[in-house]
């Protein structure tokens, strides 16, 4: 059977050799091993080409590959799928909404969570906003098999889960490990150095500040070759301020690190690394643009109290690239890190006072609305700014240069006047022509100085905004479990201690989520303030330069 | 028989009720009397409407109306047309150019003189540049009937002209009176006050400066009515500095004055008055534009040493409009002025030393080339500036406002963030949005401040440039007569005294022409210098205003 993969995101081919893929599209692969982060395969239209390996997940069993025909998605929510659930479902589905069709299963969960109608958990009776609708609405017959979960063995624990489990195994709540953690299935040995503190700040929970803040410079990349010139690649020189030791890293290292971070931190918005590009990888423009993107990325990494300190990132920043053994050792260690996903939450130490979940829910909902609005407005701003840059480079430049040229033509005509007393005027008009041509050039050059950085900023934040639906999903999933467990306790189906455990763990997830949101707002305000100031300063300099040039031209008329 | 008129210039209808006419087109009139400078009639396509009275000449006899079928134009150069010539033509036309067809007559003279191939005088053997080709090239049998011309009676003198006369009675050289003057047919009583001195200046002949320079303000026009509101018109308040008495004048007065000036001064470039407009005459935009045009016109009138001082202009500027009798008296006097056309040259007193005609010819040719180049370049500049203004009003404004709007949308999204510490940033971004919207407005408003005046200037000079072919034509015609007379003297067909008279009179025309060209260059340098300075100053102010606005926006981030 051919190796298949499912596209996780849309990818639009931009270069020859690439092939576009749509989210959820099933692809046939030519091989499992990626080439510099790219996989080769055939999409559902039969088009063959490259696509980023990180945009797809390889399907390793039949169950997964049947997703292709969409028929199993409905099945996933049926209790008859024993692979996904070890507990009994209600024998009778409550028919609380007349328009709800039985076939309307967990498909919604495949979509991005921006849609307000999407649900966090799929079981009837556990959907956040609809929670209270269910009181007394038909029998709820969840059977509690064990009242406590062994921390020692998550694998075993799975088979003795006590509250309903999300049946959609592609749900972020499940995949991130959020569900496993809430249900008490996470286990791992937390070293003191791994402890991550959430403290109560002025505006709510926040990540404890990094006591040893640092930044990291990314110097001009150089083209390197290996295998006697058979393979070439771009190497970036990284110099972190806390070690002052330069290390060389390739894009694939960034890509590897990114994958580790995303895997490890379920409720942290890992900044997206600049996009992959198969062709033109060695072109100056592309390299310069990628470097700028990596600088932005690095800035967000080092600014983050949790990401900045984590082992894999430190290994990436500090391991001498020449010491291949040390590098591989650290790499293997990171890949075998147990404190990822569900276990990551074990490392979080929340503030002493637990949060009020109603307040948390309101905050999260507010943030969700906010991110939607911010996403819309940054998209719009990005389109406007992009068009504005294009206009300045083409239209504005052309207009000023046409005016400049016409002044020059006039001065050339005037030079034929045979009158000595007009020589000064002719020269001044000619200079004015040059001036307007120069102003046209200024307009064309300006966007790279002020609009491009804005677009870089917007791109980075669009990446963050794309992360948040999943983060919110995890927190909402946890909250749903709390509500569910409360109901079970009320109904006598769950003991109070177990419910309190769920409560505590939801508190940890909520603290981490709110700390992350708080961090997002803080760097957002910092970044947008800095970038708006930079833009305005650049614009002021730009218009002052024009004014100066015009003043110079005006002076030429003094003795004309 | 219906009243006919011939179009002197192209007129493109711009408003409903107007009809387009082409140069030389024959029109049928509904009446001879113009309404506010407009005539009503039917063009050759059968379209009925208004056209400017000054664009046509009314045809008052059959001979003129036959121009319609173009058949008489060739006839005009034939000796068998006794109405136009009283002397014998060569019996045999020299066939000096193989491509010259017999039918190629004086049609060329109808065209504008920009074309280098056009001729000044139509008789073979008298064409400027070809003059020497004719030496010994076939017999030249001009018969000299009288050796001296009586100054007492130009009408009688005509019948006893001694050198060839231009056979195209529509030739500017003929119409202007230039030919009549050169041939010694002009006559009139020159009062001391009418004397116009051409002096030798640093750069050649110039008009003697006006010893009593003045300017004239044109204040905001008001709408007036007469016949108890039956008729309304716009009245302009004129205040000349030398009288300080305000007079009211209507557009039709300007139009009348313009016609007098054009008639009177054959080699002076009378500035064109703003264009006529049948509809929308009372609209504010139009009135404001016309007033600006009249100010430019007035500036050129008062700057001109000859025009500024002439009686009809002084009458126009100083006669109390309430004193209808005085106005009519002055009007009648101006219309009966004998010192117009040919006789105008009688009033000119040249510098003592006669000019070197070869040098004059070279200067005139140089100026002709110059005007052609200036005409091309001002046309191009006008088109560019017009387009630039349009772009600023539409495209530039739109781009800045779109950016402003996008910033505002972003600030509105940010206002949903529930974070107190970002209030300052949100307000600053919102202010930045307003700033860019304001900058868009600035761009849209700017052209009326700096590009419109440039277009007004270019329009005025395009009028002057349109005058010069005729002026050059008159001087070239005179020079042709000199060459012709020299040849006649050499051949013993003309006595030396008569030739000297032609020489002297050509010297007067040449002095006046060069003085006018010198004046043109001086006001051109003055006007373009002033206007370029004004434009640059306005642009500097404009960009400083933008910079100031951006600085204001930047400050908002200080405490954000």
From TrEMBL, chains A, B:
Keyword Iron: no
Start and end residues of each PX domain: 214-324
Entries under PANTHER family matching the protein: SORTING NEXIN, SORTING NEXIN-18
Listed name of the protein: Sorting nexin
Domain SH3: 1-61
Cited SMART domains: PX (SM00312), SH3 (SM00326)
Region (Disordered): 89-138
GO annotation (BP), single: cleavage furrow formation
Binding site for a 1,2-diacyl-sn-glycero-3-phospho-(1D-myo-inositol-4,5-bisphosphate): 250, 252, 290
Family from the record: Belongs to the sorting nexin family.
Biased composition (Low complexity): 89-104
Species: Amphilophus citrinellus
Single annotated GO MF: phosphatidylinositol binding
One GO location term (cellular component): cytoplasmic vesicle membrane
Biased composition (Acidic residues): 106-116
InterPro entries: AH/BAR_dom_sf (IPR027267), PX_dom (IPR001683), PX_dom_sf (IPR036871), SH3-like_dom_sf (IPR036028), SH3_domain (IPR001452), SNX18_PX (IPR035703), Snx9_fam (IPR014536), Sorting_nexin_WASP-bd-dom (IPR019497)
Keywords per UniProt: Cell cycle, Cell division, Cytoplasmic vesicle, Endocytosis, Membrane, Mitosis, Protein transport, SH3 domain, Transport
Localization: Cytoplasmic vesicle membrane
SUPFAM superfamilies the record matches: PX domain, SH3-domain
Bilayer disposition of the protein: Peripheral membrane protein
């Amino acid at each position: 059977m051919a190796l298949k993969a499912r596209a996780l995101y849309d990818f639009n081919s931009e270069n020859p050799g690439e092939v576009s893929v749509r989210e959820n599209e099933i692809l046939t692969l030519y091989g499992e091993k990626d080439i510099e982060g790219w996989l080769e395969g055939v999409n559902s239209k039969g088009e063959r080409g490259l696509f980023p390996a990180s945009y797809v997940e390889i399907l390793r069993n039949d169950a997964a590959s049947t997703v292709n025909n969409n028929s199993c998605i409905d099945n996933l929510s049926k209790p008859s799928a024993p692979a996904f659930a070890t507990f009994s479902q209600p024998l009778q589905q409550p028919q609380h909404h007349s328009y709800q069709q039985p076939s309307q299963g967990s498909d919604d969960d495949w979509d991005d969570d921006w849609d307000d109608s999407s649900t966090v958990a799929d079981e009837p009776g556990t959907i956040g906003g609809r929670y209270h609708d269910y009181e007394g609405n038909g029998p709820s017959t969840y059977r509690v098999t064990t009242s406590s979960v062994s921390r020692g063995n998550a694998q075993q624990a799975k088979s003795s889960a006590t509250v309903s489990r999300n049946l959609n195994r592609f749900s972020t709540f499940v995949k991130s490990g959020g569900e496993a953690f809430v249900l008490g299935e996470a286990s791992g040995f937390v070293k003191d150095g791994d402890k991550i503190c959430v403290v109560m700040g002025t505006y709510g929970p926040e990540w404890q500040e990094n006591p040893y803040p640092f930044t990291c410079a990314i110097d001009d990349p150089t083209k390197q070759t290996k295998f006697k010139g058979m393979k070439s690649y771009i190497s970036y020189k990284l110099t972190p301020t806390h070690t002052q030791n330069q290390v060389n890293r390739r894009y694939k290292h960034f890509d590897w690190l990114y994958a580790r971070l995303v895997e490890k931190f379920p409720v942290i918005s890992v900044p997206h690394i600049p996009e992959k590009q198969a062709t033109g990888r060695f072109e100056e423009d592309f390299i310069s643009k990628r470097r700028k993107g990596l600088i932005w990325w690095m800035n967000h990494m080092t600014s983050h109290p949790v990401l900045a300190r984590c082992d894999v990132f430190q290994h990436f920043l500090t391991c001498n690239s020449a010491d291949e053994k040390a590098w591989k050792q650290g790499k293997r260690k990171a890949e075998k890190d147990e404190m990822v996903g569900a276990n990551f939450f074990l490392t979080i130490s929340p503030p002493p006072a637990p949060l009020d979940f109603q307040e948390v829910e309101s905050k999260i909902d507010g943030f969700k609305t906010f991110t939607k609005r911010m996403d819309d407005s940054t998209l719009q701003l990005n389109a406007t700014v992009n068009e504005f840059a294009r206009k300045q480079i083409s239209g504005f430049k052309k207009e000023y240069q046409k005016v400049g040229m016409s002044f020059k033509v006039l001065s050339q005509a005037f030079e034929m006047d045979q009158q000595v007393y007009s020589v000064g005027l002719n020269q001044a008009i000619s200079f004015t022509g040059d001036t307007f041509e120069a102003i046209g050039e200024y307009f064309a050059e300006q966007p790279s100085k002020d609009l491009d950085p804005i677009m870089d900023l917007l791109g980075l934040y669009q990446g963050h905004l794309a992360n948040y639906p999943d983060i919110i999903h995890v927190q909402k999933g946890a909250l749903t479990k709390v509500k569910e467990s409360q109901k079970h306790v009320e109904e006598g189906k769950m003991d109070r201690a177990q419910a309190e455990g769920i409560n505590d763990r939801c508190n940890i997830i909520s603290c981490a989520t709110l700390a992350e949101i708080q961090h997002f707002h803080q760097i957002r305000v910092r970044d947008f303030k800095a970038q708006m100031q930079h833009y305005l300063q650049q614009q002021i300099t730009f218009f002052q330069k024009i004014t100066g040039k015009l003043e110079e031209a005006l002076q030429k008329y003094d003795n004309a």
